[in-house]
Each structure stands twice: as structure tokens, then as C-alpha cells.
Amino acid sequence: MAENTSTFTGAAADGTALTAVYLTQPAANVAIGLVFAGSDLPHIVHWGRPLAKPDTLLAAYDALKPQRVSGALDDTAWPSILPTQAESWIGEQRVVLRRAGVELFPKFTVTNIEAGGVLEATLDAVSGESYTDVAGHARATGPVRVPGVIVTARDEEQGVEVEWHLELLPGGLVRQKATVTNLFGADAGAPLEIGKIELGFPLPESAGEILTTTGHHLRERSPQRQPLTVGRFEKPQLAGRPDFDASLLLTAGVPGFSFEHGDAYSVHVGWSGNSVLSAERLPYTTGVIGGGELLFGGEVTLAGPGEGQNSYDTPWLFGSYGDGLNEIAARFHSYVRSLHPRLFSHGRPVILNTWEAVYFDHDEATLKKLADRAAEVGVERFVLDDGWFHLRRDDTKGLGDWVVDPAVWPNGLDGLAEHVHKLGMEFGLWFEPEMVNLDSDCAREHPDWILAAPEAVPYREDVSYRTQYVLDLANPAAYRHVHDQMAALVGQLGVDYIKWDHNRDVTEPVHDGHYGLHEQTLACYRLFDDLKREFPKLEIESCSSGGARTDAGILQHADRIWGSDSNDPRDRVDIQRYTELVVPPEMIGAHVGPSPAHSTWRATDVSYRAAISLEGCSGFEWNILECSDEELASLKAFVALYKELRGILHTGRVQHADFNDPALRGRGVVSTDGTHAVWVVATTTNLRDVLAERLRVRRLDPNRTYRVRLRDEVGEPRWGWNTPQWIAAARDGGFEASGLLLEQVGLQVPPLWPMQAMILEFEAL
Q1: In whole angstroms, how far apart are CA 330 and each of 24, 48, 212, 326, 557?
Q2: What single string gives the DSSP state of each residue in 596-619?
Q3: Which string of b and e fits 443-456 if b means at least 16 CB within 10 Å?
């Protein structure tokens, strides 16, 4: 990838020596450039489409450097990659460092610039050099070199060194991180406390609107928009996890930017603990969008060289530029998919999870019958949810005791696991490894393992959650306890899949006398990795009361996330829509549940539930022993359709349509070569107009002819008033049209009734 990195040298108009570094990914149609002035930290001067003449990047320094502003310091602030007050930055502090409680104001001097290919490791590589994915495409695995730059800078007087990494990944996603090192030993100064390192990217003046998501349990990822004005907007998350109202992305763009159009810039912090996303504008300088880990006092304190931990690594801050949210999301999908190539060597399995089927009412005979019915329908992975372990008759007991309860399972889980495997299905098991109930042998024997202020356990019931507390995984003994019990069951039962839950906010997390969430998060990652290393075929789903831990940090370790505890398709159509801004669909659990839905008591047709489930990693959250023959026939038809289409659904590029009607949703997946696409058009309520909008199908080959088929095997969608003429042909062998017509003219959508969905397939002839 060295050819995608260029370095240029020259001088500014005032004679200052300049060095420019230009990184590009031509196939992804994106580039980023930075300029160093003398020995100062660099400025990012370009982030967008590749430059026609990158050798002119040096000119950006003179073109962009702000001049003196009346009433301000002589050296007007121009934010570098780490702006501080020593650079005249008077916005929100982005670098907070202290010694003995005294604030430091570092002025960093660049000591080394390393530009060229940067090694990017693939974290979940399959054996061998390549493999064939579920869509039949040959794929390479293993580490690759990406264009990047590493900058080392020091403040010798303050005893601080920073190593900053910037990488431009193959799909066009850019990421940056910093390592802060304490250079002073105990004889030269106090330990170095890290208060905050908040990285960022510059924002153009045209980015006048911001989009974030908020929500709550059962309503995750609800979008909200507002103007980006002078001042600071921030979205902090202090629940010890990203939480339900966490914004997957903070996006700033031209006012009115949409999924399909409008220059926009998104940031995301790849961290599963406390974090912040922010956008900030000052009246006289470049705006900044970014984020980082939020640390409490004393949480990260660095010793001197040779005296203990003397460096701190920030999480990766990811940035994605695009013309519309679809392009922004595609860059994240490319990256996340690269972490888990093994997932694409076979189809993502159809799952039946037992939670809404039986809840805590575990009975071996009933569950074996449920497994039989699941296999009959075509399920490929059977997951036993909460309720199987010691004392677990409700949600207030047993967490921390990961041993099978003989009162409910007198013969253990071996019989069920064996039965599931003999039926040709994988066997999955639920755990909540980071949590402990006070009513458990673990808590009674080891109250010191609870991650909380000592005075809060067990007397502070106001900070409990169903008598549930957090287990201190940074405590080696607690870690061994959880790991050993989980590993024993995985090995004994041949567990193929873990549903890993995290149901409680993390408050007052005191570890070894200081705030311990940073160490807790790293320990969680380590437990994921240790189990997967010991059991190479094991897959793990990250669930957190649904979608409360969804981020690029956990996605480096988890193979799937649970999008929401709501299986109501009316809610799911939007929850999944905005979760897909970061997470590719094949890693989002999206199940068909009963009607009415357990979360909302809303009744919907099975065809609607199936169509929305088709948009993710599908399965069932349903006691299908209670299904009618007609329902079973529909479920079998749906599973067959899912298996037929998952090659395209789980490898293609996701597209969301920009409909003006607030009741309409359009979501498609297009193959990388543009020859195949599957779209779901759905309604959430009554259409605004009798004549519905057109679906314009983008990213097809304009010169090819396509056959359009209405896939109604699961049930025909219902509509009134009128039927577009193309529908009849789409039902009977297929309607034919060019890719150009489908994109520029589109297909007239029928006036679907509320909560109806139609599935359309496009195949090049």
C-alpha cells in the first residue's frame, strides 16, 4: 500500500518548513491529508474525495492558516491533532494531564514522522490464505498494509510523550489513536494522571447540521437532528457501557443530508466503556468533531519508566466521510467484516432463542420438543437462554454461579446439548459473565469481588438492579472463577455459541481503591478472546438488555450483537436501520416473534415480521410449539427464502432509500458487482398520499437488464386503492427493466396498508 501514501516537503509563504502526508484509498474514493509546520503537531487539511494533484497539498497550509483575529491571541487557534492551550486553543479541553493534582499544559514537539504502510492485523482470520464466502466470492485473509502515518512528539519539560497513529482502511474508514507515555520517574516528578485525551477531525463550515441517536430499552437508535451552532455539542455515555441512548455515530453534514445524498462526516469511539462524542465550533477557527474515552479521577495513572504501567492507549476514534449515510455506513461495514472473515465462510445460521418461548420455565422434555420443532422448521442454531444455572428461578438470584442447577436439570444439560447436536443444529448457551446477584454462592463467599464502592455493598440497594451487581473482572481471582466455570461448560457440552448478556448500568465501579471501569472493559475483552482462543469454533453474541453495548470495540471480539429486546417489527425496522450505520446486517440479531409482540402487545402479520427479520441475522424468539399448521408453513417458507438469499443479504452493500413519506421505509442490499439486489419496502403507519412514492434502486449496472420478482412466499403484502401495472409481471416470472430506468425512473410503490412489507429481488439477465 505504499503507493497510496505520499510525502511532500516545501515551505510556507512565511518561510516555515512544511511536510505534507497524503493518504488515499482510490477504490473507496476517499483521501486524507495533513501538513506539519516545522516541528509542530500536524493539522488535518483535507478529508474527502481524492485530490487530482496531491502534490499541491502543501498549499493548503497557507490557504487555511487563520490570521490574527482582533481581540484574540496573536497566534490564532488552528486546532492540530491534539489542540492544547499552548496552541492558543481555548475551546473544551481535549488533552487533560495532571501531576500531583496540578494541571499540565504541554507543547508538543514532533520528533519523528513515519509514513507509509501500516500493519493492520485481522483479528479473526481463518486458517489459510483465502476462502470462499457464502456468496461464492474468493476472499483473502490475514494482515494487510494500509496507508498511514505515525507521529511521535514530546514535551521534554513536562515529561510527556505522545505517539499518534492515523490509518486509512481499505473501505475508506479512517481511524486514529494516541499512546501517552510518562517520561518522568519517581525521582523526577509525580505519576502522570490521564484526565482525558479527546481526538478529532476538522469540520468544514458547510457542516451545519448534526445527527445523533438516542432512545431507551426497547426503543434504541432513535434519530435526532439539530443545527450545529457556535459552541460545543456532546453526547457522553457514563453507564459503563454505550447504553440504550448512545449515539452510534455523531454525524455533521450539510443541512438536510440524508441516506442517499449530502456531504457528511461521522465519528465513532471504538470503546465499550464510558465515552463521549462531540462537535465544537469557535467563532474564529476550524470546527472539530471527535470523541474519546471518559475517565474518572485516578482511573488511569502512569508510573515512570520501569516502575509499572507508564503508557495509556486511547481507543480508536473512527471517522467516515461520505455523500450520504449509505456511503458512511458502507465504510464501517467493510471494516467490521474484515475483522471476522470466518463469519462469511458459511451462511449466518437461523437461530431459535428460547427466552420468549419459555422464559424461566425450564423443562428438559419440553425443550427437546422445541428443538425437534426448530429442526423441522429449518433452524440451524438452538440457544438455551437464562434460567439453567444455580438458583435461577427468577431474575434476582444465581448470577455468578455458572453451574447447572440440579433442581431443574437433574441430568445436567448434556442430554439437551446432545439432542440438539444430533438434530444437526448448533447448541448455544446464555451467560451474563460480568454480573453477580447478592443471592449467589459467589457473592456470599467473595463479596470483595463486587465492583463497587465498599460502602455500597450490600447496603446501597438504591444502586442495585434486581439485586444484581457487577463482578470485578480485573480481579484475577474473580476472572479465573468466571473463565473456568464458562470454559468447563463450553468444553463439556460442546457449546458452539454463547449469548453474552450485560443487563446493568455500571455505577460506582471501585477497583483496588480507584475508579475501575477502564480495567473492567479491558478484562471483558480479554475474557472474550481467551474463550475464543481456547475454543476456536466458538461464536459469541454481545447482548446488553438488547442493544445497549453496540460499538466498534466490542465488535472486535463479538461475532454478533442483539439489536434490541423488542421483536416488534414496527420498532425493529427503525432500530435496525440506524444500528446499520455501524454494524453490518449479518451481525445484527433480528428475530421473528409471536403476534402480538411481547414487548408492545402490537399484532402484525407473519409476513411483515419475516420481512423485517430478513434484514438481519435471522431467527425466532417464539414458542413455535404453539404455532398453527398455517404459521409453521409460513415459517418454513421464510427459512427457505432466508437461506436462498443470505449470500447477497450478508455480503452486499446496504442501501436505504430517501422517501419523503414518513410512513415508508425502503432498505436494500446490492451485490458488489451490481448484478443482484434484494429490497424490502415497508410501511409503519398510514401512507400520507394515495399515490405512493417510487422506489429508485441504486448501484445497479445501468447498462444491464434486470428481472424484478416479488418474493411473497411468506405471505402476500396487502394494499388498497390501486395496483401498479408492473406488479402483475413481477408475480408471474418477473418484470424486466434496465438498471438505468430502475435508478432514474424507479418503480411505483403500491399503496401498502399500515405495517405491511414487500420483498423484491433484482437479478441481472
Answers
A1: 17, 15, 18, 6, 20
A2: S-TTT-----HHHHHHHHTTSEEE
A3: beebeebbbbeeeb
Owner of C-alpha cell 457556535: 230
Cell of 644: 436462498
CA distance 78 to 64: 9
Task: Assess contact for 86 and 41: CB atoms under 8 A.
Answer: no
Beta bridge partner(s), residue 167: 148, 175
Catalytic residue among 565, 568, 571, 574: 565
Single pTM value for the model: 0.97
What are the distances in angstroms from CA 189 to CA 154, 286, 575, 696?
16, 36, 50, 64
> Which one from 243, 323, 501, 574 is the annotated catalytic residue?
501
Among 69, 170, 186, which Cα is nearest to 120's?
170
Res. 658: pLDDT tops 60: yes
- The CATH architecture assigned to 78-339 reads Distorted Sandwich (2.70)
Beta strands in 284-345 (DSSP E): 287-293, 301-302, 311-313, 317-323
Name the CATH topology of 342-562.
TIM Barrel (3.20.20)
Domain boundaries, the chain: 78-339, 342-562, 655-764
Tell me whether residue 551 is one of the annotated catalytic residues: no
| CA distances (Å), origin 662, targets 248, 580, 696, 708 | 22, 19, 17, 25
Q: State how far the alpha carbon of 511 is from the alpha carbons of 129, 340, 433, in Å.
A: 43, 32, 17
Strand partners, 720: none
Architecture of domain 655-764: Sandwich (2.60)
Q: How far apart are CA 198 and CA 276, in angstroms?
A: 8
Which whole number is the average pLDDT over 103-127? Answer: 82
**Looking at residues 390-417, what average pLDDT do you find?**
97
**Do you know the residue count of the chain?**
765
Is 414 catalytic? The answer is no
What span, in angstroms and rounded, lies between the C-alpha atoms of 407 and 396? 17
Residue 690 has a CB neighbour count (10 Å cut-off) of 9
Q: Is the pLDDT of residue 709 over 90?
A: yes
- Whole-number pLDDT of residue 238: 96
Of 213, 215, 237, whose CA–CA distance to 226 is shortest?
A: 213
How is residue 670 annotated by DSSP?
Answer: E
What amino acid is encoded at 749 in this protein? V
In the predicted structure, residue 460 carries a pLDDT above the cut 80: no
Q: Minimal CA–CA distance to 205: which of 235, 230, 233, 232?
A: 230
The pLDDT value recorded for residue 419 is 98
Query: For cell 515551505, what's the residue?
Result: 11
d(CA 650, CA 176): 28
